[in-house]
């Protein structure tokens, strides 16, 4: 995560941590895919996923991950896909989603990825309107 972004997050009181993608599943299931099993979510995670979580008093309130995606790489070989961004409804509007998106894109840049695909469903439009990143498809 960039130094400037880290300073902004600290000022906002956000506690952002890298975490195993497996530890994001319950929140992703609750917010995004309540009809899917945890096993299904695990089967559809890229092996190289890099995940971040936002914590509030040690309670996980938002997650997201970035990783390779065959469909995206077929169009753009050096691209990754941002996936699984989920924020608890009571935590929305406080910058957690934007902070995760920034951290994931920063990670992709450090890994020398040329672009990332960011799709939003249901609740993510506000994050994308508020946060536009160069290099995102």
Mind explaining what this structure looks like?
With 137 residues, the protein is an alpha+beta fold. The chain has a single domain (3-130), classed as Gcn5-related N-acetyltransferase (GNAT) (Aminopeptidase), CATH 3.40.630.30. Helix content is 36%, strand content 25%. The protein is built from 6 helices and 5 strands; from the N terminus they run H-E-H-H-E-E-H-E-H-E-H. Strands 1-2-3-4-5 form a 5-stranded mixed sheet. Helix 5 links the parallel strand 4 (79-87) and strand 5. The longest helix is centred in the C-terminal third of the chain and has 15 residues, at 96-110. The radius of gyration is 14 Å and the shape is globular. 32% of the residues are buried.
Give descriptors for this structure:
6 helices; globular; 36% helix; 25% strand; alpha+beta; 5-stranded mixed beta sheet; 137 residues; Aminopeptidase
Please write the string of helix (H) and strand (E) elements.
HEHHEEHEHEH
Q: What class, by secondary structure content?
A: alpha+beta
SS field, number of helical segments: 6
According to CATH, the fold-level topology is Aminopeptidase
Uncertain runs with pLDDT below 50, 5 residues or more? Answer: none
Alpha carbon gap, first and last residue = 20 Å
User: What is the CATH architecture assignment?
Assistant: 3-Layer(aba) Sandwich
The main β sheet shows up as: 5 strands, mixed
Count of DSSP strands: 5
CATH top level is: Alpha Beta
Q: Report the principal-axis shape.
A: globular
Helix content: 25-40%
Rg over alpha carbons? 14 Å
Please, how many domains? 1
CATH superfamily caption: Gcn5-related N-acetyltransferase (GNAT)
In what range is the share of β-strand residues? 15-25%
What do the pLDDT scores average to? 79
Task: Give the strand order of the largest sheet, numbering strands 1, 2, ... along the chain.
Answer: 1-2-3-4-5
Q: Oligomeric status of the shown chains? A: single chain
């Amino acid at each position: 995560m960039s130094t400037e972004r880290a300073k902004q997050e600290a000022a906002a009181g956000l506690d952002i941590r890298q975490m195993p993608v497996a530890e994001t599943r319950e929140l992703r299931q609750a917010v995004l895919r309540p009809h899917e099993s945890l096993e299904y979510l695990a089967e559809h995670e890229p092996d190289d996923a890099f995940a971040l979580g936002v914590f509030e008093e040690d309670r996980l309130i938002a997650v997201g991950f970035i990783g390779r995606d065959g469909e995206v790489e077929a169009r753009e070989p050096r691209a990754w896909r941002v996936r699984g961004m989920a924020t608890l409804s009571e935590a929305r509007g406080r910058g957690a989603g934007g902070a995760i998106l920034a951290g994931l894109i920063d990670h992709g840049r450090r890994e020398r990825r040329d672009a990332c695909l960011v799709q939003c469903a249901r609740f993510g439009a506000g994050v994308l309107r508020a946060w536009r990143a160069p290099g995102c498809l």
